[in-house]
Amino acid sequence: MAGISIFALVRRFGSAWRNDGLFAAISRAGSYVRRRVQGAGITILGGTAASHITGADQYLHGIWQTLARADAFHISDSPAINRGRRQIAMIADLNLPQCRKYRVEQLAAFWRGRGVDFDYAHYQDVPRAARIMQHATHLMEYRLQTGPASDMLRYEARRLRLPILYDLDDPLFSVSAYETYRNMEALEPRMKAHFVSEAPKYLSMMNGADILSVSTPGMAAHATLYSGRPVFLRRNFADEQTLAAGSLAMRGQGPEEGIFRVGFASGSKGHEIDLAEIIDPLADFILADPKRRLMLIGHFDLSHLPKALMGQVETAKFMDYDGYLRTLRRANCAVMPLCDDAFNRCKSAVRVLDAAAVAVPAIVGMVGDLPQVVRADQTGFVAADQGDWMAALRALAADPALARHLGQAARLDLEQRWRGSDQPHVIAPELIDWVEA
């Protein structure tokens, strides 16, 4: 193939598999193949259909030169804004399926529901990214770091005089968060060193925007330590796809009679350290009854578990979102412990939303945004210490009707409080004003 060797493709596929799992690697490879077939510009695996000669970072250079020589490089304020029309262009890192869902696709549905045009592009698909900006009135960027393609697209946005919002849902810009992030204990040291070295690139991109949006109050507080830009909250919420997929999953197999399953979902490597926070009471609870199971969904290194527990452990690989919810529906409850560190204090409650979508009650700790989404003793349990974790598990196992009641209440609360809307606890009014005012 022009622009990239087969060896390089195989190497990058293997790297994606090791770092993000087989599903993510296959998804990226599928996207690559589709774009090659369609001739749609730069791909997520590298190389381009149109710019392998000049390079993606020079895609707009010829256009800029022509405009500059014709004294047409600079434009006045967009007449579209003056007419009241609004059109958002989002340029994003679309490689991670869950991030794409919560920070891009559901945002597109939200704005389209308000009558605002919304188009998005992967940041390495330079032709499409450049094209959607030409008719936009606002630019949103998600999870981008500085680099040749990102810098060029940002320059074009400034040429077009677009107001820019930068969105992030993890403190990827924060050296202090990475250096105290305990999940890194489960990864190779070189991976932590890589993340730390990338942090300044995210911070530079953040501080080049006009305003910032983040996913949790903890993330907002941490971002203000690094940036003087205005920071606003846009929590993750349950979109119509989530609610519909949850309803469909609930029509399938639910908790098995006589078996009590405790679900733990891990979307990436390192969450073994989070589960270790409660492994002693959790193992005692599971081992107290041969009909109890620990169900691990997604990435998990089983060597981190007590050997005595292995006979009562079930595993399920991550799949597409609908398949993930069908698996989660088989649990009687879901546990969501987090180590108390700066990185985890920024964490959102997406796992709570997922569990609520299939009417599974959650037991959460005090870290991150999780205890703000769970209504204690009404839609689930909030555990302050290990005794609370054990008490919650015992209460649910002793009374199946209680587990069903809490799960149904969690689903109703999801529909009423965490559905995609303009409620101020979900989306800051200032973000809506930024687009619509």
Q: What would your notes on this structure say?
A:
With 437 residues, the protein is α/β, with parallel strands linked by helices. The chain folds into three domains: 1-49; 56-236 and 425-436, Response regulator (Rossmann fold, 3-Layer(aba) Sandwich), CATH 3.40.50; 240-417, Rossmann fold (3-Layer(aba) Sandwich). It is 45% helix and 13% strand. It has 19 helices and twelve strands. The strands form two sheets. It has a six-stranded parallel β-sheet with strand order 2-1-3-4-5-6, sandwiched between helices. α16 links the parallel β11 and β12 (380-382). α11 crosses α14 and α13 packs parallel to α17. The longest helix has 19 residues, at 189-207. The radius of gyration is 23 Å and the shape is elongated. It starts with 5 loop residues before the first helix and ends with a helix. The relative contact order is 0.10. The model is unreliable at 1-5 and 35-54 (pLDDT under 50).
